[in-house]
Amino acid sequence: MVCGGFACSKNCLCALNLLYTLVSLLLIGIAAWGIGFGLISSLRVVGVVIAVGIFLFLIALVGLIGAVKHHQVLLFFYMIILLLVFIVQFSVSCACLALNQEQQGQLLEVGWNNTASARNDIQRNLNCCGFRSFNPNDTCLASCVKSGHPCSLCAPIIGEYAGEVLRFVGGIGLFFSFTEILGVWLTYRYRNQKDPRANPSAFL
Fold first, then answer.
1. Range of the domain at 58
2. Considering the chain, what is the average pLDDT of its residues?
3. Which residues pair with 152 in a beta bridge?
């Protein structure tokens, strides 16, 4: 059967939602791995990653059930939610790619000042203390403090990777935003195709 047919639309939609399911489980697994190995101690960061993973899993589950059963209501809500996610994700991805070095520094400094646990993780893992300056009276978990060696500031070290990380995040976000608009189009087409099994209850 040609790809414009009912079966192909159904299979493509199922495959797309299986991809979303794998990504959601990967996000949850990465968050658990970071906590388990002590790489991340910030419950806020881990909570956000796990929440995104669960949200994506639920969306994929709704889309998968709607695609398998050709359920019009589930497909409609799936299409609307996916469209809203596309708008938000596309905007955030473009913002990540458009930030210059000065804006990146301001964003990093705001995050540094508002997340104490993440700040401690960065200082411990990158072996640095302070963002642009360091007060000896402040707490720093870097190994350089314990050994008595002079510690580097964290801003230059983070700045080396910030641009690459933002470009990577923006690129991944753009890729998945286009898969989301593809999912919206597939769902719209699939909803308006007649089931060859001619099941009258599929449109109830």
1. 2-192
2. 82
3. 128
